[in-house]
Every structure is written in C-alpha cells, then in structure tokens.
C-alpha cells in the first residue's frame, strides 16, 4: 500500500508541475513589434498559473498507518487542485479575449482543457471520498483510480499549451515576466 501511495504522491507532484508550467521563448530580434496588450494579458494568466502551482507544490502527508487521514488529505489536495484550475479559468475569463488574431478560439480551447482536467479531478475526488477505509483492498483500488487521474493530468500539458498554439500569444507568454521561471510543459 505504501508503494502505491507514494506513487500517487509523485503523480500528484507531476500534475502540480503541469499546472505550474509556462515556459519562456527566447527574445525576438530587435526591431520586432511587441504586442504590449498581449504581453499584459499573458502576465495576468501566468501570475494565476504560478500562484496555483505554488499552492499545489505542498503534497499531503501519506501515512499508511492512518488511511483515514491519508484519504482526507488527498481529498483536500484534490479540492485544492480543482480550485487552482478554477482560479486560472476565472483569471482567463476576467482577462477577456486576448488581443491577438484568433485569440477567442485559442482561449476556448484552453478553457476546454481546464474543464476536462477539473472533471478528472472531481471524478478522482468522488472515488476517493466513497472509498471504504475499513477495506484496504477498496482503498487501494480508489488510490489506483486517483493515480490514473493524476497520470492523465500529468500527461496533459495544461491550458498554457493551448494558449501557446497561437503564435502571438506564444510570443507574449515568452515575454511576460510572470511566465519567466515557471517550469515548461504547458
């Protein structure tokens, strides 16, 4: 059981890294036009992503001797992950359509990614909440299902990957100071 719990913890860390991801691109050659409004938009979004990643970097305690507490900690952590994704979605919504060609469609795709990731988290949380703690086998099954959700999240590149498919937003993300120093992968 300990091995599965630790594997789940490492998968959770991968999901947190995914949420925190926002890589930078090299500076453009001198003379290129910079879309300052798009950079400002990216600043807002990356600040939210960075804040969510900071929140999720502290994993819950795993103690196989206290499965109730372990489950409660994991449920709380899943709730935190979902809330962090909601905050990113709220920030994107508040920031409005990015001032770039095709910005609306790009944001729509990012929001779909966030929705899919939140659904996976909610499903994992429900499974874990309903797990029979008195039955170690069912608890291990729930942990296994939660790990599957984390594996799916850690293999996804998050909403910033969707945003970076737009060349102007990709450049803005590369120039936004809030995006600098965040891990790549999104």
TrEMBL record:
Signal peptide per UniProt: 1-20
Top-rank taxon: Bacteria
PROSITE patterns: PROKAR_LIPOPROTEIN (PS51257)
Keyword Signal among record annotations: yes
Keyword annotations from UniProtKB, A to Z: Signal
Protein name listed in UniProt: Small secreted protein
